[in-house]
Amino acid sequence: MELASEDYFMREALRLAHRAFAADEVPIGAVIVREGEIIARAWNQVELLKDATAHAEMLAITQAEASVGDWRLNDCDLYVTKEPCPMCAGAIVHARLRRVVFGCPDAKGGAAGGLLNLLQMPQLNHRSEITPGVLADECAGLLKEFFSARRKP
């Protein structure tokens, strides 16, 4: 896929992350793309829904499955502003997403190569391609701004 396309889809995920920020949610956004079209859009809604599983990736996967009419998303790509956590990576593997493109890494809790790599674990039934670092500075900057603002008295 062309870099311009990757930037385009990541910018859409960033737009959604800004919506999360405005709602006082951790600013992470995600889109799922199939055949060059966005079929799902989501942002973190943990606080709004009072649901620890309401991560952007999880909500986007549910939307994409409804759009496709199947739980198998093996011809779909996920664009997300931060490296997926272990919960989201598990769902990505189970939904069989073809590729995961993420913005900034998460060395402490990422499951796409940061802390561990569930997305390419040979013992699991599916492996996703990983493309890290797309618009990484912008994605990381938004997270830093959010947490910096929350730490101020």
What is this entry, summarized?
The protein has helices at residues 3-22, 46-49, 56-68, 86-95, 136-151; strands spanning 29-34, 37-43, 76-82, 99-104, 129-131.
List keywords for this structure.
about 150 residues; alpha/beta; 5-stranded mixed sheet; 5 helices; globular
Q: How many helix segments?
A: 5
Could you tell me the mean pLDDT?
96
Sum up the overall morphology in one term: globular
Structural class: alpha/beta
- Order of strands, widest sheet: 2-1-3-4-5
Q: Mind telling me the C-alpha Rg? A: 14 Å
- End-to-end gap: 45 Å
| Largest beta-sheet details | 5 strands, mixed
N to C succession of SSEs: HEEHHEHEEH
Q: In what range is the share of β-strand residues?
A: 15-25%
Task: Describe what you observe in this structure.
The model has no long low-confidence stretch (mean pLDDT 96). The longest helix has 20 residues, at 3-22. Helix content is 41%, strand content 19%. The chain contains 5 helices and 5 strands; from the N terminus they run H-E-E-H-H-E-H-E-E-H. The protein is globular and about 45 Å long. It has helices at 3-22, 46-49, 56-68, 86-95, 136-151, and strands at residues 29-34, 37-43, 76-82, 99-104, 129-131. It is an alpha/beta fold. Strands 2-1-3-4-5 form a 5-stranded mixed sheet.
